[in-house]
């Protein structure tokens, strides 16, 4: 049955002793036209930075990452910026509309070269988020004129290294960032692009006039206009909390997930997916763990849905912007406790099915009228099947890839397990949870009680 990953971790090093050797700016290898890129309403509220880390073990052909990897990466990024010219630009405000835009001015992206005094095997379990991993992402560089994306290559004494990436979320969603990395790996190896990016963000422009045809319970309006502000603004559901949070990773094996799916099917759920089943299981545990729980209290679960295939006509799969909207499911604590699991799985499925072309267009138009953020009790953010660890680089696939994790009460993360990352399998999943101690104790008890019912 599922295990608590934290009990398996090796001791963590609190300071990776990272020394920065150089910082530089990479510009496109060829001249690119100076233009302004329209940002759709989904992009508008994502003007904040997301950090990811990609760990690589030693490679016999690249024993000195400073010399080999950095040079190849720099050349590949310069070449790739011809195809992703907006990345070399900056966030700006259109004076006429007050909306955020990308000023594609070829100023370039950032590259930081650093080294740790430790070997990769010394730094501890890569799956368990170590606060010291912050030293592997370039968070405090280029403060006066911040690029949209900055890379940091940190070499370890063993010959392994990490590539930390800090990227403005307005540039990419998870799928388009994965495709960017695919292209980076290909160009670094001297190959053509694997995905020709589609940069036409007008495909997700609001209708004129805007037409909101659905109630959007998953969205909350805000009073001020984001377009007039260039500082990083994260949605309230993602804000850090001041209170102390207990932190655990719950590992579900492929067998655990299979048993949960069988139980859902036995109850009448039709072809339950792994994501829907795991999310329903988490939703029940999270809602019922809240202190002073009221049986009639409504719990709203949020999760992201890729709208590329859901629009009519569908967006190109290689759409290189943000094409993800928030789906939701709502139930009372009484119904979540009583179940059955099959019904909860169907509710998650129905939340995703709600995201039709018209619903998505309505949500985009809502953003034109109101400006707002996703709003609910908590969000399940899944990195489970994005496939960052499957990217092929000349120096091999990553040993592990993950976002830099912060402890956030309202966000539960799903990560692939390291044992299967990069192996073409995604049987197991790590559920990363941060809650106040009393709520965590309830969550943990419920997590295993409900899981045991599926045996």
UniProtKB/TrEMBL annotation:
Gene3D superfamilies assigned: Chloramphenicol acetyltransferase-like domain (3.30.559.10)
Transmembrane portions of the chain: none
Pfam families from the UniProt entry: Transferase
Molecular function via GO: acyltransferase activity, transferring groups other than amino-acyl groups
PANTHER family: ACYLTRANSFERASE GLAUCE (PTHR31642:SF189), TRICHOTHECENE 3-O-ACETYLTRANSFERASE (PTHR31642)
Family: Belongs to the plant acyltransferase family.
Protein name per Swiss-Prot or TrEMBL: Omega-hydroxypalmitate O-feruloyl transferase
């Amino acid at each position: 049955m599922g295990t608590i990953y934290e009990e398996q971790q090796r001791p963590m090093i609190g300071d990776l002793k990272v020394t920065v050797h150089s910082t530089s700016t990479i510009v496109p290898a060829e001249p690119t036209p100076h233009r302004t890129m329209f940002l759709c309403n989904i992009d508008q509220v994502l003007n904040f930075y997301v950090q990811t880390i990609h760990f690589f073990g030693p490679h016999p052909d690249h024993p000195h990452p400073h010399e080999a990897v950095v040079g190849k990466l720099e050349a590949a990024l310069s070449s790739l910026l011809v195809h992703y010219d907006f990345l070399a630009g900056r966030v700006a405000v259109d004076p006429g509309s007050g909306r955020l835009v990308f000023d594609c001015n070829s100023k370039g992206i950032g590259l930081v070269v650093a080294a740790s005094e430790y070997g990769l095997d010394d730094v501890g379990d890569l799956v368990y988020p170590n606060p010291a991993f912050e030293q592997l992402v370039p968070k405090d560089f280029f403060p006066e004129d911040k690029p949209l994306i900055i890379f940091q290559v940190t070499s370890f004494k063993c010959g392994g290294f990490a590539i930390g990436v800090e990227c403005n979320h307005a540039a990419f969603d998870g799928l388009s960032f994965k495709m960017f990395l695919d292209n980076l790996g290909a160009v670094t190896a001297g190959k053509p692009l694997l995905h020709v990016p589609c940069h036409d963000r007008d495909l997700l422009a609001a209708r004129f006039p805007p037409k909101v045809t659905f109630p959007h319970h998953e969205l909350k309006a805000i009073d001020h206009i984001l377009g007039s502000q260039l500082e990083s603004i994260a949605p309230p559901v993602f804000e850090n909390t001041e209170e102390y949070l207990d932190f655990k990773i719950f590992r579900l094996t492929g067998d655990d997930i299979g048993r949960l799916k069988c139980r859902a099917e036995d109850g009448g759920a039709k072809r339950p997916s792994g994501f829907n089943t795991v999310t329903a299981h988490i939703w029940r545990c999270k809602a019922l763990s809240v202190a002073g729980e009221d049986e009639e209290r409504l719990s709203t679960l949020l999760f992201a849905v890729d709208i590329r295939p859901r629009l009519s006509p569908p967006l190109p799969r290689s759409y290189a912007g943000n094409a993800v909207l928030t789906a939701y499911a709502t139930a009372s604590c009484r119904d979540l406790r009583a179940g059955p699991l099959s019904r909860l799985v169907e509710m998650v499925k129905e939340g995703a099915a709600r995201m039709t072309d018209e619903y998505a267009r309505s949500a985009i138009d809502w953003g034109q009228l109101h400006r707002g953020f996703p709003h609910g009790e908590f969000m399940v953010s899944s990195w489970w099947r994005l496939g960052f660890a499957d990217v092929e680089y000349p120096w091999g696939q990553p040993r592990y890839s993950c976002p830099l994790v912060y402890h956030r009460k309202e966000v539960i993360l799903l990560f692939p397990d390291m044992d299967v990352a990069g192996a073409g399998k995604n049987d197991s999943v790590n559920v990363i949870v941060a809650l106040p101690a009393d709520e965590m104790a309830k969550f943990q008890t419920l997590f295993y009680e409900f899981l045991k019912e599926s045996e």
